[in-house]
Design goal:
Helix content: 55-70%
Order of helices and strands: HHHHHEEHHHHHHHHHEEEHHHHHHHHHHH
Strand order of the largest sheet: 3-5-4
Structural class: mainly alpha
Radius of gyration: 25 Å
Strand content: under 5%
Number of strands: 5
Number of helices: 25
């Protein structure tokens, strides 16, 4: 048994002792004890992952991000310890009488900590309460070398000199974060746990790309330089930072720099020194480690991939998933979608080859090429789809209208997810509107008929609605920080399905091709994820499967497979979540008959934010029962 393995009996004994000690020490009612626990959980989550807290706009008093998340062996140990303690405390509290109003929150938090327990048995690997478990330190999404540029681009805004100082403070921590993660990966390698060669190669290539950029055009310095320029805080006659290419300047200024401009230039020089003397050398060390580890042998335990798949699925779904049943369901759904695509493509005159070949042809068709479209024109197209869905929102939700969604295209690649988009919820201030960040390169690589599905899944009726309704419920920090991926990703896919059910694709049948293609991709991801973990198929076979099943281009298929190899279960969560939401809706519609109201159903499952799937099912079944009794 490794040092992280848990004995369930010991855990329950610890819970009992903690409950007795709690009763002996405190005279406050259990409700107060629980409220204190919830507050403590939220504070620990923010301290453990300030980057996520900043992105979700949850830092106290709207503060800027000034501290990066700790990486390295000690950070992982602390996260495991906090998860175990949280589960133990909640189990200890379970025997005490909670106020009725606290039971829904207790149910969700207990589900959260329970889903982490399987990963605690598996020993080494990445671990956080917000991101969940992953077997390897180096990960194509979460590795610091890829994640830090996204943090700087998306969570470190620069509105004034104070923000610029905070940004430089973050730059000062980047090198140590990179080195800590590399140390963790090196320790893991000594145990025989080495990331697959393709993932190490991907990270090494990312390092090479970063090192090949001049600092002022790279993702570490460019945001600071661009914002200082936009704010007029760089004197036009100021020299370039040492070692950098000369900064393009306007005609020489007639007045000397003012104090604010002098301070901005000093910060820029400091930032450039940090990038060149600390960050770039740390990136080079990470690249060398990746190259060295590619030659190391793998000595993984028996059933390694299957065990991690179960742990990953438990985190994603908070439920025990019957892998074979889910696989067969995805196969059947993929067959139905393929038949629909075949008929729809034939109706549009696309008849040569099988469905995946025809989808590949369409992706390469100049009629649907977005590569030459300006960012402004792309935003205009996306906004038109958002407006069309918003006009239908009263059919789906009790809330009649939803706040506008700002769409912001990132010129620098910033790790925005599998479809090149990432949603950021609105903040407490009126000016902190919800934002949909879009990777320009990823967006332009997609066909134009994929745009409506992207907006419907991330905007209305998808992710934006989930966020707005959850914000209105005033959820505690702890719930906002943890999230439940299968529900969130499942709701996004369900949101696009709602748009299809209500005819939003009828005006443009090409956009419906994009919707069906996205739904087929979800089924293919689930099957590929399970095949990698349970059948041991090769990376090349998995890539070929995604190409043949869903018409994905090789780069998109390769990245998806690398994500599944690095984090088993991540590819399956969205399809499982969508199926469970649809199944819950079907039960409610059958159980309530003419009394079923889809707006009330959506209000029920969205009022608590992202939910564990089993908790969602329990609430829906209880709702159906109460409605039937009241007839």
């Amino acid at each position: 048994m490794n040092r992280h393995a848990l004995d369930r009996r010991v855990l329950l004994q610890s819970a009992s002792l903690l409950a007795l000690a709690s009763c002996a020490r405190r005279t406050a009612p259990a409700e107060t004890v629980f409220a204190g626990m919830v507050k403590q959980f939220g504070e620990e989550l923010i301290a453990g992952d300030p980057e996520r807290a900043a992105f979700l706009r949850l830092l106290p008093d709207g503060a800027n991000l000034t501290k990066l998340r700790e990486r390295g062996p000690l950070a992982g140990e602390l996260a495991r310890s906090q998860a175990l303690r949280g589960l133990t405390e909640l189990l200890g509290l379970e025997a005490q009488a909670l106020a009725r109003k606290d039971l829904p929150l207790f149910e969700v938090l207990l589900a959260h900590f329970s889903r982490l327990e399987p990963a605690l048995h598996l020993g080494l690997g990445r671990f956080s309460q917000s991101e969940g478990p992953a077997p390897f330190v180096f990960h194509p999404d979460c590795a610091a070398i890829l994640g830090l540029p996204a943090v700087l681009a998306n969570t470190a805004p620069i509105h004034d000199l104070g923000d610029a100082e905070d940004y430089v403070l973050l730059l000062g921590q980047c090198a140590s974060v990179l080195d800590a993660e590399a140390e963790d990966a090196a320790m893991q390698a000594k145990q025989g746990w080495v990331a697959p060669p393709a993932i190490l190669e991907r990270l090494a290539n990312a390092c090479a790309q970063l090192l090949g950029q001049a600092p002022e055009t790279g993702p570490f310095l460019a945001p600071l330089l661009g914002q200082l320029r936009a704010l007029g805080l760089l004197a036009t006659s100021s020299p370039a930072p040492p070692g950098a290419q000369p900064i393009p300047a306007a005609p020489p200024a007639t007045a000397p720099p003012n104090p604010a401009q002098e301070r901005a230039q000093a910060l820029l020089i400091q930032a450039d020194a940090l990038v060149q003397r600390a960050i770039y050398p740390a990136i080079a060390r990470t690249a060398r480690l990746c190259e060295a580890q590619r030659a190391l042998p793998h000595r993984l335990p028996a059933n390694f991939s299957r065990d991690w798949l179960q742990a990953g699925l438990r985190f994603q779904t908070n439920d025990a998933i019957d892998i074979q049943k889910a696989y067969r369901s995805a196969q059947a759904q993929a067959k139905t979608l393929t038949d629909q695509l075949d008929m729809s493509l034939r109706a549009l005159g696309v008849i040569d080859g099988n469905v995946s070949q025809r989808l590949s042809q369409l992706v390469a068709d100049p009629r649907f090429d977005l590569s030459a479209l300006s960012p402004e024109a792309l935003i205009t197209q996306l906004q038109s789809h958002f407006n069309a869905a918003s006009a239908q929102s009263a059919n789906w939700f009790e809330t009649k209208a939803f706040s506008a969604l700002r769409m912001e295209i990132m010129a620098q690649p910033a790790g925005l997810g599998e479809d090149g988009a990432r949603y950021r919820p609105a903040g407490p201030r009126a000016e902190d509107r919800a934002v949909l960040y879009l990777d320009l390169a990823s967006l332009r690589s997609q066909p134009s008929f994929a745009l409506a599905n992207l907006v419907f899944s991330h905007g209305v009726p998808g992710r934006h609605v989930l966020s707005v309704l959850a914000k209105g419920a005033n959820l505690p920090i702890a719930l906002q920080m943890i999230g439940f991926p299968a529900f969130e990703r499942g709701w996004r896919a369900y949101g696009a399905q709602l748009a299809d059910e209500y005819g939003l694709f009828e005006a443009d049948p090409w956009q419906r091709i994009g919707f069906l293609r996205a739904q087929l991709r979800g089924c293919a991801f689930l099957m590929c994820d399970f095949d990698l973990a349970t059948k041991g198929i090769t990376r090349d076979s998995a890539i070929a499967f995604l190409q043949s099943q869903a018409g994905l281009a090789w780069p998109d298929a390769a990245l998806a497979v690398d994500r599944m190899m690095a984090c088993p279960g991540v590819g399956a969560g969205g399809e499982i979540g969508r199926n469970r939401i649809v199944a819950a809706r079907d039960r409610a519609r059958i159980g309530l008959g003419p009394g079923f109201d889809i707006r009330s159903f959506h209000a029920l499952i969205l009022a608590g934010g992202e939910l564990p799937l089993r908790v969602m099912d329990n609430r829906v079944d209880a709702w159906i029962g109460s409605k039937q009794k009241s007839r």
